[in-house]
From TrEMBL:
The keyword Hydrolase applies. One of its GO terms (molecular function) is hydrolase activity, acting on glycosyl bonds. SUPFAM superfamilies: (Trans)glycosidases. The keyword Hydrolase applies. Its EC number is 3.2.1.-. InterPro entries: GH, Glyco_hydro_1. Keywords: Glycosidase, Hydrolase. This is Glycoside hydrolase family 1 protein. It comes from the Bacteria. It comes from Planococcus notacanthi. Belongs to the glycosyl hydrolase 1 family.
Length: 465
């Protein structure tokens, strides 16, 4: 029988992870500290159950078995990130040979199992020494990043063909410089804007280094969390609020990455509030040269907004939220285990927007997934019966399929994540994997969704619910 939802030939089935969230071995193999190691040491209370990044899911030691499991569930692609502070302790200077050996082993094992490695260069994990120098506020750190990127291309570019400069670059801006959920816990929009801007400058420099490296069949991209902003109503005030949220949180990175320039409206808003970043001569051209070949899209939940109910406090620090209030739509569908709305059609809306306004750039779903607390309550016959996750994936894949039917240039779907992993301040609170991980013994156990995705990947599609 023909499948109801069949995907294009060669569709990428896989999952995404990041170094800090899975590797563990934080003080092993010559790795130096990044901001997460240091922040956890300073303030363990900020992390769920006090759990830090020291050992996480121990991929550093278990990578071979893990890649075997990926193979078993039909992965043909897998995204990992390189830890900057592991490859170049301190962020600049000498390469750590143990790190090179580790990443070589991982990459070679993936390829041996016919799983194409996708590699992110930066996934929230600034080397601590460079943060001490000001992190992304400091243009010299941008230079250090470009060098680091060049080393990665040189060391691994013969085998890795899909490279991503940053994962969700807006998140360290929001977390570290506006809303206090990443180190260095600054609340200052001007500094936030500088960090965002320098991130894009760093991105463009890395793209330049990549082009110069001439990696055969190589593609360079960026991973953006494109949370669509839905207005409460069609009232002009609500529409204006959702446009502002879209400018701050989506177009601030999407426009420079895909169109090569910042939206004029965003620049105007920042100018009006005296929040424009310091730029250098030639930057505009540089940003233009950073246009990507491929875009990874992370989508978890929509953002609903409405016009502000109250005037912002003129004595408080400037915030993007001066332009909108978040809106809780009555009757919205919720993930009851994580407090996030589920809106499957969002994935379609994102893709249509990319098709119509961003030249139908080649893209893929780089992260989508469902976090659930304490999944042991769903064990039946020794297996976590995560039907809610299967349903979540089906809902999103159905809309993604629709987007493809309508001509959107989507090449694959990666779940967050392969196995349960360490989620920053939430540590191991919310579980996302196809495989559960016992954080004491590190034992991996397939959930029901692991068996299900294997079939989907092998058949390159599925039948609807
Ligand atoms: C994303 C992020 C991942 C992971 C995920 C689930 O925003 O890229 O690192 O933590 O959320 O919480």
């Amino acid at each position: 029988m023909a499948l109801q939802y069949k995907f294009p030939k060669g569709f990428w089935w896989g999952s995404a992870t990041s170094a800090t969230q899975i590797e563990g071995a934080a003080d092993e193999g010559g790795k130096d500290r990044n901001i997460w190691d240091q922040w956890h040491e300073n303030e363990p209370n900020r992390f769920f159950d006090g759990v830090g990044p020291a050992s996480t899911s121990d991929f550093y030691h278990l990578y071979k078995e893990d890649i075997g499991l990926m193979k078993e569930i039909g992965h043909n692609t897998f995204r990992l990130s390189i830890s900057w502070s592991r490859l170049i302790p301190g962020g600049r200077g000498e390469i750590n040979p143990e790190a090179v050996a580790f990443y070589n082993n991982v990459i070679n094992e993936l390829i041996a199992q016919e799983i194409e490695p996708f590699v992110t260069l930066y996934h929230f994990d600034m080397p601590f020494e460079l943060q001490e120098e000001g992190g992304w506020e400091n243009r010299e750190v941008v230079e250090a990043y470009a060098k680091y990127a060049g080393e990665c291309f040189r060391l691994f570019g013969d085998r890795v063909k899909k490279w991503f400069t940053f994962n969700e670059p807006i998140v360290p801006v929001e977390g570290g410089y506006l809303y206090d959920f990443h180190y260095p816990n600054v609340v200052d929009a001007r500094r936030a804007v500088q960090v965002a801007y320098h991130t894009m400058i760093a991105h463009a420099k890395a793209v330049g280094v990549f082009r110069a490296a001439g990696i055969e069949e190589g593609q360079i991209g960026i991973i953006l969390n494109l949370t669509p902003s839905y207005p409460r109503s069609q009232h002009p005030a609500d529409l204006k609020a959702s446009d502002a949220a879209d400018l701050f949180f989506n177009r601030s990175f999407l426009d420079p990455a895909v169109l090569g320039e910042y939206p004029e409206e965003l620049v105007e808003m920042l100018r009006e509030h005296g929040q424009l970043p310091h730029a250098e001569k030639g930057d505009q051209k540089l940003v233009k040269s950073g246009i990507v070949d491929i875009l990874g899209v992370n989508y978890y939940q929509p953002r609903r907004v409405k016009a502000k109910e109250h005037l912002p406090n003129p004595y408080g620090p400037f915030m993007p939220d001066w332009y909108f209030d978040n809106y809780e739509m009555p009757g919205r569908k919720m993930n009851p285990y994580r407090g996030w709305e589920i809106y499957e059609k969002g994935i379609y809306d994102i893709m249509v927007n990319l098709r119509d306004n961003y030249g139908n750039i080649q893209s893929y779903i780089a992260e989508n997934g469902m976090g659930v607390e304490d999944e042991s309550r769903f064990i039946g016959n020794g297996v976590i019966q995560d039907d809610y996750r299967i349903e979540f994936i089906i809902g999103h894949l159905t809309w993604l399929h629709q987007a493809i039917e309508e001509g959107c240039n989507v090449k694959g779907y990666h779940l967050w994540s392969f196995m349960d992993n360490w989620s920053w301040m939430n540590a191991y609170k919310n579980r996302y994997g196809f495989f559960s991980v016992d954080i004491e013994t590190k034992k991996r156990t397939p959930k029901k969704s692991a068996h299900w995705i294997k079939q989907v990947a092998e058949q390159n599609g599925f039948n609807g619910a």
